[in-house]
């Protein structure tokens, strides 16, 4: 499958529309969430037209709420000062009903771009069975014999990440920094220590969980499976860590407010 984060590139052409941008990005990611929720590299559920409504939409709404309520603040705290000065930490609302409808539409459109993209990079979709081009054999360095749709997976994953990186760079260059950045409750040393600890936990968890792939498969498959499982697990643990930080920060703020 194309790398999940690469799918954010599909939101770029829609960035100036009336769609809610964070909901659109969430929709671009959410079909792959079974991989991360179940810590398994073979997902299900959200990659179908029906799944857009019974999985992508409800899970996308819940994930969006969790992000804005708990994950966004610690993410901003851990970012470098230049990014914090350019990002807004305002409250996110799902109301009134018209706004909720717009958010739902944004998630569904993002999900649709994900499924359309995957349609050309998986053999289980309509294009593979009807377009012989996707079934052409290709010889890949290191990986050996493969098929065109697999090559498109690799190319589109890299291209998507490059586009997202360029997009972030352009946004950074063209966005004026605020005079007063998001409040920073920790020193630079404290933030660095927390980031290192969180990353080490995520990386070690990914490696420990994925090591079985090396022992059970042969050829190039162990490397591919190990990498996929390690990345999926590491990202999942990282997000859970940010979620835990967000819950802690909100609890601490509530306690400070009660004691003031």
Automatic annotation (TrEMBL):
Name of this chain's protein: DUF4184 family protein
Naturally occurring in which organism (per UniProt): Candidatus Sulfuritelmatomonas gaucii
Annotated TM spans: 21-40, 52-71, 92-117, 151-172, 192-210, 230-249
InterPro entries, per the entry: DUF4184
Lineage: Bacteria, Pseudomonadati, Acidobacteriota, Terriglobia, Terriglobales
UniProt keyword annotations, A-Z: Membrane, Transmembrane, Transmembrane helix
């Amino acid at each position: 499958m194309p790398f999940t984060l690469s799918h954010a590139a599909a939101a770029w052409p829609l960035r100036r529309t009336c769609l809610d941008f964070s909901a659109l990005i969430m929709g671009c990611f959410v079909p792959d969430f079974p991989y991360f929720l179940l810590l398994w590299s073979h997902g299900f559920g959200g990659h179908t037209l029906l799944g857009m409504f019974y999985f992508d939409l409800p899970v996308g709404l819940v994930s969006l709420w969790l992000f804005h309520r708990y994950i966004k603040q610690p993410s901003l705290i851990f970012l470098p000062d230049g990014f914090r000065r350019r990002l807004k930490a305002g409250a996110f609302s799902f109301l009134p009903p018209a706004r909720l409808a717009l958010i739902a539409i944004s998630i569904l459109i993002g999900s649709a771009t994900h499924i359309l993209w995957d349609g050309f990079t998986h053999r289980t979709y309509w294009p593979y069975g009807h377009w012989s081009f996707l079934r052409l054999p290709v010889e890949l360095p290191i990986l050996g014999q493969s098929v065109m749709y697999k090559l498109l997976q690799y190319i589109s994953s890299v291209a998507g990440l490059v586009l997202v990186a360029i997009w972030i760079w352009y946004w950074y260059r063209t966005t004026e920094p605020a005079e007063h950045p998001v409040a920073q409750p920790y020193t630079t040393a404290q933030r660095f220590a927390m980031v290192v600890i969180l990353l080490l936990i995520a990386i070690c968890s990914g490696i420990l969980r994925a090591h079985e792939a090396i022992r059970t498969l042969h050829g190039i498959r162990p490397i591919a499976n190990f990498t996929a499982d390690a990345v999926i697990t590491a990202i999942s643990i990282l997000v859970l860590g940010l979620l835990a930080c967000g819950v802690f920060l909100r609890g601490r703020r509530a306690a400070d407010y009660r004691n003031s």
